[in-house]
Design brief:
0% strand; elongated
Length: 177
């Protein structure tokens, strides 16, 4: 009987110590808030020294985005670099005619109609935005698949560099020949 009372008493002390510790932290936080955020004797005076910083809107206005012509980038595209980039695509696509993975086969995709294979279930989003996979359409799609064709089933986030997209398209175009 004495043992049960000892265990209950010990647990009560431990719980009380924890509650006391949390109370000290709460009071400390309240005191710090009172000192630092309610003036703390400084009043509502203006800062003695202000540093002006350009806002993001000002920076955007000063430097207009340079539009790069995709045809120029495509003319200097590297098939070898495109083959390296293809490694990311081959987890879902194949370069064999009619062999589908998660995505459709991409052999001969450049300048081919969008919904080429009858045995692949294309999303309606792709068919709605283009009829043919021209290099320009592939470029826009590879840059941001969900932005180019909202509702597409392709889960790829996109390829940011225009040179990478041109290299990949050049590689896809070369393997079809």
């Amino acid at each position: 009987m004495e043992r049960d009372m000892f265990d209950t008493m010990t647990m009560t002390k431990v719980v009380g110590a924890l509650c006391g510790t949390f109370l000290v932290y709460l009071l400390g936080g309240w005191g710090a808030e009172l000192i630092y955020h309610s003036g703390g004797g400084h009043g509502d005076h203006a800062q003695a020294y202000e540093i002006e910083v350009a806002s993001a809107e000002d920076a955007d206005e000063g430097a207009p985005e340079e539009e790069v012509d995709f045809a120029v980038v495509m003319a200097s595209a590297s098939v070898e670099d495109g083959e390296t980039l293809w490694r990311n695509c081959r987890s879902c696509h194949a370069l064999e005619s009619g062999v589908h993975g998660t995505g459709p086969a991409l052999l001969g995709v450049v300048n081919r109609e969008v919904a080429f294979y009858d045995d692949f279930n294309y999303s309606g989003a792709l068919v709605a935005v283009a009829e043919t996979w021209t290099p320009e359409n592939l470029n826009a799609f590879l840059e941001n698949p969900k932005g180019y064709a909202p509702g597409t089933a392709m889960g790829y986030n996109g390829m940011r560099k225009i040179e990478d997209r041109a290299n990949l398209i050049a590689y896809l175009e070369s393997v079809a020949q």
